[in-house]
Amino acid sequence: MDILHLVDRLENIVHESRTIPLSRKLLLDEDRLIDIIDQMRVSIPDVVKHAQKVTAERDRQLAQAQEEADRIRQLAKTESHTILENDQITKGARIRAEQILEEAERQAARTRADADDYVLDKFGRMEHQLLSVIQQVRNGVQMLRDPEGPADTPEAEKST
Predict the structure, then answer these.
(1) Beta strands in the chain (DSSP E)
(2) Cβ partners under 8 Å of residue 143, min gap 6
(3) Measured between alpha carbons, how far is 127 from 111 in angstroms, rounded to an integer?
(4) Within 10 A of 27 (CB to CB), how many other CB atoms are there?
(5) d(Cα 42, Cα 11) in Å, to the nearest integer?
(6) Burial of 95 per CB tally in 10 Å (0-12, 13-18, 19+)
(7) Using one digit for the tens of pLDDT, what is the confidence trace for 76-115?
(8) 5 vs 8, 33, 52, CA distance in Å?
(9) Which of 22, 57, 64, 139 has the fewest CB atoms in 10 Å of its CB?
């Protein structure tokens, strides 16, 4: 039976009872009151049990919601760390790539300079050899023109 219905019945008994003259006291029907009180004793444990079940269910749902919130929070934290690490790895990779490019450019510049030095050295040697060959050709031509005179005289070179 509903506990509120029993409380209403108690209230009706109070309203329907007679007052003692010249006082504020009431004459109540003891049997009816005890009957309602007994019904309340039977009914209250059911109400309390139901309230406990409702409270337990609410607590369970709150705990489940808290666990879910904690799980989502942890997942978000893990994901943010992963994103941050990936971002840091990417930044590190970009910096390293720039360093590699700069080093490659420096190496290429050194290689070009070394190649230029090598070519200049080779051209210098070739020039020296060619000048030597030219001198030999001049000496040969001079000897053929003037078989009696010295080939390396400064006057002979001026005449050519």
Answers:
(1) 18-19, 26-27
(2) 151
(3) 24
(4) 9
(5) 19
(6) exposed
(7) 999 988 888 888 888 888 899 999 999 999 999 999 999 9
(8) 5, 14, 21
(9) 22
Please enumerate in sequence order all residues whose Cβ is within 8 A of that of 44, keeping only pairs 6 or more positions apart, or say none: 3
Residues in the chain: 160
Nearest to 44 by CA among 89, 16, 3: 3
Q: If DSSP codes are grouped into helix, strand and coil, which group holds residue 27? A: strand
Sign, CA torsion 19/24/29/35: positive
CB contact set of 89 (below 8 Å; sequence gap of 6+): none
Structure pTM? 0.38
Separation of alpha carbons 129 and 135, rounded Å: 10
Structure letter (DSSP) for residue 20: P
Q: How many helices (H) and strands (E) does the chain have?
A: 3, 2
With a CB cutoff of 8 Å and minimum separation 6, the contacts of 7 are: 40
